[in-house]
Design goal:
Jelly Rolls, RmlC-like_jellyroll, DUF985 domain-containing protein, five-stranded antiparallel beta sheet, about 15% helix, globular, YML079W-like, 3 helices, 13 strands, six-stranded antiparallel beta sheet, RmlC_Cupin_sf
Length: about 170
């Protein structure tokens, strides 16, 4: 699909606003049904939420962690590089995009309690993603990572951690 969109037109048409982790977002769905998922959450949560999420060349999704599973969906634009850091000290870099022959995936799952961050692949102009979270997203279940802390636990990923943190 050709890039017939400008960043400004996507922000306007989708009603996006700056996201605290970087990029732009708009919540598009919050389930009315709720659940009490247990002790890892503070109180009742929606059973699911969804957002549009836009990355641009001058933004990135800073390293953060959620207490819910998150599914990324690639809608349009250029591919995204995502870093995932696991509790056992391992990490993986994945590409979210539509070029299946190049190993990209149009859908990527980040399990709960896995550190994550993402950016456009070099040369990219924008990427419009969707993020679905279950149980639903709540900022009480979200924490941003610190470069020094993450780099000390995942030294093999330190270069990308540096690119995906602001401190």
């Amino acid at each position: 699909m050709p890039h017939d969109f400008t960043i400004e037109s996507l922000i306007e048409k989708l009603g996006l606003q700056p996201h605290p982790e970087g990029g732009f977002y708009a919540e598009t769905f919050r389930a009315l049904e709720t659940c009490n998922p247990g002790n890892r959450y503070l109180g009742v949560r929606s059973t699911g939420t969804a957002i549009y999420y836009l990355l641009t060349p001058d933004t990135f999704s800073g390293m953060h962690i959620l207490t819910s599973d998150e599914i990324f969906h690639h809608y349009l634009g250029d591919p995204v590089e995502q870093l995932q850091l696991y509790a056992d000290g391992s990490h993986r870099r994945v590409e979210i995009g539509n070029d299946l022959l190049a190993g990209q995936k149009p859908q990527m799952i980040v399990p709960k309690n896995v550190w994550q961050g993402a950016r456009l692949k070099p040369g990219g102009k924008f990427s419009l993603l969707g993020c679905t979270v279950a149980p639903g997203f709540d900022f009480a279940d979200f924490a941003m990572g610190k470069r020094a802390d993450l780099s000390s636990k995942w030294p093999a990923a330190a270069t990308m951690i540096a690119a995906l943190t602001r401190d």
